[in-house]
Structures are given as structure tokens and as C-alpha cells.
Amino acid sequence: MRVDIQSLGTYNRLAQEGAEHAAASLTGMTGIETYVDVTNVTLMSKRDVEDVFGGTEFVGVQIGLGGGLSGETALAFDRDSAASIVDVLVPGASAGDDDEFDDMARSGINEIGNIMMGGFVDGWADYLSTSVDMTPPTYVERDGTDVLPEGALDRAEEEHVFVFESQMTAVDEEIDAYIYMLPEYGAFAEMLEASDDHDDAIPMDKLTVFDEMTRQGAERAAENVSSMTGIETDVDVSRLSFVPIEDVPNTARDEVYVGTVMEFKGTPGGYLAILFDEPSARTIVDATVPMELDEPLGDMGESAIQEMGNIMTSGFIDGWANVLQTSIDHTPPELVHDLGTAILSPIAGRLGQSQEYAFLMDSTVVTPEGEFNCEIYAIPDEQKLKEALDALLVERSDQLEANRESLF
């Protein structure tokens, strides 16, 4: 099946607008000014879902959808955010002092969840010119993937699932909220399907292959870090998201990074950014420079980071080249030391001259103890990605299963 990029973009905008309505409802009910940080749609495998949700403890509601849009939604707060909202919304309710929300607190979460999700869904109903039925909200207080609607992981194991994710953040308070919508896969895929003669289309089954290629590339990059430094590393999160090009910078955390950016050319083309937070960069320098430095991130330290970025780049793109059976040239990695948004903004600007959306492949390399963190962002040129996937589909369709097996 081939996916119409413009249709996928339209539904992403609907999710963004729905999240903005939900944020406005939260602001109106609590007086806590809230904005939408980023909205994306991700095609996830079971492993992707487990990685993204991790062991975080969530409080929120689940609501089923039917009619013109079938599937499930979940509104989730981390526990501290939920407690802050309950304190404002239901004064006098127990908001977790004894590790359990009382009935009044749960009722308040249900009420705000119902109103926020109603605002989220209304735009979809208007666009589809049909009604969207919502089940009554079900209060949930669970860890990690258990916050998702029942059966979501089972479906992800059988076939990848679409996950619309919106993050909302309070302006002056430490409050974060997340909306997850999982449309029913078959019906939603039909809504996205492009006609055979549609030029602006991406083969869906090859996107899942490319997703696995990205994870393999991240794992190779992590192995290179371990070989160079002796530090045990692993890939914590690896996923493929679809976002408006202007939102690409917002996917980076709001902190300073040291790392490298390079442009890769051919099929596919695009950019690769390998970014260490500053404490991790110092760890890399300490492990690779055989002398004590007065300034770990001085000239010699930055040179070590640049070399590590070069080695990780080679490991990352080798996986793509092997599956696509082609060589991938790239420019020498350029050293960067700035806020994550400032690093990704020029990339988004260059790609934004020829495309409205981006397939963003982001992976996180960590150590088991969590003292090391490296973010990898691969942002391909949309047209070059389409050419690469078309080549995989047309020229090597008989090797698809072998290619897929080679990723594991």
C-alpha cells in the first residue's frame, strides 16, 4: 500500500489543532496557561511502543472512538502533573499524598479528560463530515505501556500501529500532558491510501523496513561508542515519526548539546545529527583523550567529540547502505555546540525549501545506569527517501524478506 503524504500531513494538522483545543480547555478549567509543544504521528512496532513509554507512571483517562473515526485515545499526565491539576480543579481532594488518588480526585481527572478529549476529537468530525462517537472516560493510573488502551500492544506485535502523540506543557509550572490516539489500523490506512498514479506517495511496508534499518544503524553507532571508549551502551529508543518540517527543532530537548551534523547524499539524501548532552560529551572526552585536560570541552575535547561523531556516522549509515545495496556519501561531520533547537533549525530550514513535512528518525543511545545520553536524528530528504523506498519495492521485491531478516 502507498501512503499519500499530503493526507498524512492533513491528519497530523488535525491532531495538532485538536491538541490546541484540548490545551485551551485545560487552561480554561484550571487557569494554568498551557501550550502544545509538538505533535507527531509515528508508525510503531511493539518494541517501539515499549521503548517510548518505558516505566513512567501515568495518571489519566482512556476513551474509545467509533463512527467516522474508530480507535482509542488516552490522555495521560505524569503523576506530579496530575496532582498539581487536581489541587487546582478539586480543592480538598487527595492528590496522591498517600500514593493514591481519592474518588474526588479521580472524578476531577475524568471530567477534565472528557472535556479535553472532546475538543481533540471535534476537528476530526468536522473534517470527515461525520459524527465521532466517544465512550465515557475510563480513569487509569498505570505504569508505562499499561496506560494505553487494552490490546494496543497486541496489535503492534501483529502489525505496526499508528500513534498520534501530542505533548502539552504549562508555561509557568512543571506540568506536562500527553494525548495519544491510536486509530484502527485498517480503516486509517484506507484513509491514507494513494491512487496508483499518485506521485506524492510512500510505500507503507517499506517504511516499516526503514524503521528497522534506523534501529540497526543506531545499534551499530552504539557499538562503535563502546569499542572506542569501553563504555557499555545500548539503544533506548528508536522510532520513525512524521512531523511538519517547522516542528523538527522542537523534537530536541531544551538543553545544550555537543556533537556533529553531516549531510548525506545520493539515495537517500538528507542530514544526520549526533548530539551528546554536555555531561556525556565530557565522559566521551575523558574516555578517549589520554591526558587530563584543563577544559574537557576545549579544542582537544571538541576534536575528540568530532572524531566520535565521525565514527558513529559511519556505523549508522552502513545499515542503510547494506539494505539499499548502494553507497551513501556524506560530507565531513561539522562540530556543533548549542541548544538542540538551534542545531536542528538550520536543517529544517534547508529541507523546508522543498518539503512541508519530514520523516524524522530519532534514536537515543544510553548506558545501563543512565549517566550517558546521545541523541541521533536522521532527517532524510523526502523525495530522495521516496526514491530509495521505490527502488527497494520495484527492484528488490523478491529480496524483501531477506532484507528484513538481515536487520535482526
N-to-C SSE string, H for helix and E for strand: EHEHEEHHEEHEEHEHEEEHHEEHEEHH
Distance between the termini: 24 Å
The CATH class of the largest domain is identified as Alpha Beta
Unreliable spans: 394-408
Helix content: 40-55%
Strand content bin: 25-35%
User: How many strand segments?
Assistant: 16
- Helical stretch count? 12
CATH homology-level superfamily of the largest domain: CheC-like
Based on the structure given, which CATH architecture of the largest domain is correct?
3-Layer(aba) Sandwich
CATH topology of the largest domain: Chemotaxis protein chec
Q: Which value, in Å, is the CA radius of gyration? A: 22 Å
Assembly state of the chains shown: single chain
Structural category: alpha+beta
Round the mean pLDDT to the nearest integer and report it: 82
Main sheet makeup = 14 strands, antiparallel
How many separate domains make up the residues?
2
> Quick one: overall form?
globular
